[in-house]
Write a structure and sequence with these properties.
433 residues, alpha/beta, TIM Barrel, seven-stranded parallel sheet, binds iron/sulfur cluster
Length: 433
């Protein structure tokens, strides 16, 4: 990469899989704005590069004109960031008549500058435990084979062996490595139809990157995997609610009975659920059973944006808020999985609503999650937020200033609930009016 350029310049993907550059063209983002050096960091360890097929790379010339690189020379380029980094800008490109939807990944703007590649991102957590180098594929394969030979009947193990080996899923892999956050999927069904669902897509030209779980495990299968993980893994977290399943609350009874059975055998580790938090009554039962933490997924604290993305079936955003408020009352550690899409969630009114939501619900941690979706798929399906986008940096700074008690990061922590679970048979919470 050329050493001396005074501004971040255009880079693109060449037909031989390399990186081409046009030093005379300023690098742009999806909105057509030049990439600001303040928004850029050297491409982080663990990031990968992605060609954007049938999309021309486009940059800004000195005379202010937008110049595209011909398709013969290559296509637009983006970065895919490891967990621990939050994207601040989407990549620029010019569509061609053959443009088709992109696979579900978190495309990030890139540029060439000072002799190396830069990405539009901020570091928002310690990525060490999520970097590809922490997941040695050959060792993983050996561990998976040995575990499946030892426990051939356990379908949960077989499911997560598939996720670990075929999707490189960190939480599935951790079940076999016996460390950190591990996965247990339980639910084929869901009560939402997220535009960016990674396990089920209904539209013909959209392909979900993962296969949806096809069975409901038994309590025995769940407890067997969970207890071993919680008792033996350093910084053990056992999480219900994974990318390969639907909504875990659909199987709330199974999870409740599993939690009670698990806690009857071990007090170790953290029992967590990743959920759309659609059913406060079911969640209250899990809080009562001994759940330690929950992570509620959301893209917005504004109902119109939430509804457009989640397309909820039989619940509303008020149910999500109620679930979080009940978690606070029960001493259960709550976080949100905030689906991050620059230009949408950093809009003035989105930020204001998010700050109010955090104060109302008592959420303890905001986990920033780069939303894996093609902008051309998401934007036509979401109402344009009122208020101009202020930038992802401003979003993070505003949260730190306006909600100083709320931690910001990118993944769940091993935690213990603040108050012990009540004795079995405690009264149910009042239904939502
Ligand atoms: S809640 Fe999860 S499983 Fe359900 S549609 Fe959304 S992303 Fe998919």
């Amino acid at each position: 990469m050329a050493h001396d350029t005074t501004f971040p310049h255009l880079v693109y993907s060449t037909p031989d899989g390399g990186v081409g550059e046009r030093r005379g063209l300023r690098a742009l983002d999806f909105t057509g704005a030049p990439l600001d050096p303040a928004d850029l960091i050297p491409l982080p360890d663990g990031a990968s590069l992605s060609m954007l097929p049938q999309r021309l790379a486009v940059g800004l010339a000195e005379d202010g004109s937008r110049v595209s690189v011909s398709a013969a020379k290559g296509w637009a380029l983006a970065a895919l960031l490891p967990i621990g980094y939050t994207r601040t800008r989407l990549p620029a490109y010019a569509k061609t008549p053959a443009t088709e939807p992109l696979p579900f990944f978190g495309y990030t703007a890139v540029a060439g500058w000072r002799g190396q590649l830069y990405a539009a991102a901020i570091r928002t957590d310690n990525p060490e435990r999520w970097l590809p180098r922490a997941y040695d594929p050959r060792r993983l394969e050996r561990l998976v084979r040995a575990r499946l030979e030892a426990e051939p009947e356990n379908r949960v193990l077989r499911q997560h062996a598939h996720c670990a080996l075929d999707y490189s899923c960190p939480t599935a892999s951790n079940i076999f490595f016996g460390r950190w956050e591990g996965a247990v999927a339980v639910s084929p069904g869901c009560n939402a139809r997220c535009v960016g669902c990674i396990s089920k897509q209904d539209e013909d030209d959209l392909v979900s990157p993962q296969d949806r779980l096809m069975f409901v495990p038994t309590i025995e299968e769940v407890v067997e995997v969970a207890v071993r993980h919680l008792e033996s893994a350093p910084d053990a977290i056992l999480s219900f609610g994974q990318g390969c399943e639907g909504e875990p609350l659909i199987q709330a009874r199974l999870i409740e009975r599993s939690i009670r059975a698990i806690r009857a055998r071990t007090a170790s580790g953290t029992l967590n659920i990743n959920t759309n938090a659609s059913n406060p009554r079911s969640l209250q039962r899990l809080y009562d059973a001994g759940l330690d933490s929950l992570r509620a997924s959301t893209i917005s604290a504004r109902r119109e944006t939430y509804d457009a993305y989640y397309r909820p079936i039989g619940y509303t955003f008020e149910h999500v808020k109620r679930s979080l408020i009940l978690a606070r009352e029960a001493g259960v550690y709550s976080s949100i999985n905030l689906l991050c899409f620059p230009g949408l969630i950093d809009a003035e009114d989105e930020i204001a609503a998010l700050v109010a939501f955090l104060k109302e619900t008592g959420v303890r941690l905001v986990q920033l999650r780069n939303l894996n979706i093609d902008p051309e798929v998401l934007l036509p399906r979401i109402p344009t937020p009122a208020g101009r986008p202020l930038g992802m940096r401003v979003l993070v700074e505003t949260l730190r200033r306006e909600a100083p008690d709320v931690a910001i990061g990118n993944f769940s922590r091993p935690v213990k609930r603040a108050a012990p679970a009540p004795a079995a048979g405690a009264p149910e919470p009042a239904p939502l009016a």
